[in-house]
Specification:
381 residues, alpha/beta, seven-stranded parallel β-sheet
Length: 381
């Protein structure tokens, strides 16, 4: 079943996304295509407190959020009803083990095509072989196109059921106009009393996989060499209490500021108020959005040597890599960077150039748009 707009000849498409509206990545995708003139519909979970940020032209459809994202037949029926009403040219589901399951079941039970699925990383790399894993494999076999942001995810997607010809590398991309070196609009350093501080910033969630504890363990050595150093730790997660206790036990609690969730709109100001960006993650797919945003702002990045990080953060050129969990090596790199402003400036400028050339939000979305047109035309034929 391929049903859709009569305006395909003018390259205006009716796109229906299945994705969580609370995610900034979802908002970036749907807003781009709505603002490009396409008719965009978003099917999302019906959850209280979902943040705003969806562009006005996007038409929202809310479905019941199953407990713990376990698939419920009623959710599928609701989505099928919306698809019959909207008659989209294409359905695109984000995050394989959540809405990707809905998309796969939609295609299998109704015959709808084309279906695009996007893998975000952990939904593929840590996928179990249980019932959830079997549903993900089934969804991948139904997909006409699967996108991911990392070459090292491709073999995993194929092993789970995706056709190798259907997999495309599409980065989430950075808005390099918003995220650029500039004077902050907000006086973040003044608000946090950091006038003379050397600022290290981390933007990863406070969950075990992001291992922010390694940054806290690096703090004592950094402070012995750079007493004015301050560590800004943004995000929420189940590890927050443990991290606060660790900072206290190491005697560095006065130099570690837990910021909680920082709104995406405020991130450029925070990044432009920092000197060095750190990611201690134990698992990344392609480049993390926060790493790319920091590099776009001209910050030198110190990140774990995992996955494809080394293809973005080139050691000694755009930042530094360190082994996962190695707080001593991390401390060495932070001391080196905080003590050398010219090195920070050089690595930061190189990093921004890398992001502008290879990870521009606008450029990646144009690539996706071309894929959409091709898929729709193939299905019509």
């Amino acid at each position: 079943m391929v049903a859709g707009s009569q305006e395909q000849g003018t390259h205006v498409t009716r796109l229906l996304y299945l994705a969580n509206a609370a995610s900034v990545h979802t908002r970036k995708w749907v807003n781009y295509f709505a603002e490009a003139g396409h008719e965009v519909h978003l099917v999302t979970w019906h959850k209280p407190g979902t943040p705003s940020g969806i562009a006005h032209p996007v038409r929202m459809h809310r479905v019941v959020c199953p407990p713990h994202f376990v698939m419920r037949y009623g959710t599928l029926l609701e989505v099928r009803r919306i698809v019959r009403t909207v008659r989209p040219d294409l359905v695109h589901a984000h995050y394989l083990s959540h809405f990707g399951l809905v998309g796969g079941l939609l295609a299998r039970t109704s015959g709808f095509h084309p279906l695009v699925l996007t893998a975000w990383g952990s939904d593929v790399m840590s996928q179990s072989e249980g019932s959830r894993g079997r549903l993900v494999s089934s969804a991948l076999r139904q997909a006409d196109c699967v996108t991911c942001d990392s070459p090292h995810m491709v073999p995993r997607l194929v092993s789970l059921g995706a056709s190798s010809d259907a997999v495309h590398i599409i980065n989430f991309g950075v808005d390099t106009e918003r995220f650029r070196p500039q004077t902050p609009q907000r006086d973040i350093k003044g608000e946090l009393d950091l006038r003379d501080a050397a600022v290290v910033i981390s933007l990863r969630s406070l969950r075990p996989v992001y291992d922010v504890a390694t940054l806290i363990r690096a703090a004592p050595a950094v402070l012995r060499a750079v007493p004015q150093a301050v560590f800004l730790v943004a995000g929420r997660g189940e590890e927050e209490a443990n991290l606060r206790s660790l900072a206290t036990s190491l005697g560095v609690a006065g130099h570690v500021r837990f910021l909680g969730m920082v709104a995406n709109e405020a991130l450029p100001d925070y990044l432009n108020s920092a000197d060095v960006y750190v990611s201690t993650s134990l698992s990344d797919a392609g480049i993390a959005a926060s790493t790319a945003e920091a590099m776009a702002c001209g910050l030198p990045a110190v990140v774990t040597d995992f996955g494809d990080n080394g293809s973005w953060v080139k050691d000694g050129e755009t930042g530094y890599l360190f082994p996962c969990g190695d707080s001593d090596r991390l401390a060495e790199r932070l001391i080196q960077l905080l003590g050398d402003s010219s090195l920070r400036e050089r690595l930061g400028a190189n990093g921004r150039r890398e992001i502008v050339q290879r990870n521009s939000y606008q450029g990646e979305m144009k690539k996706m748009e071309s894929i959409y047109f091709d898929l729709i035309e193939r299905c019509r034929r």
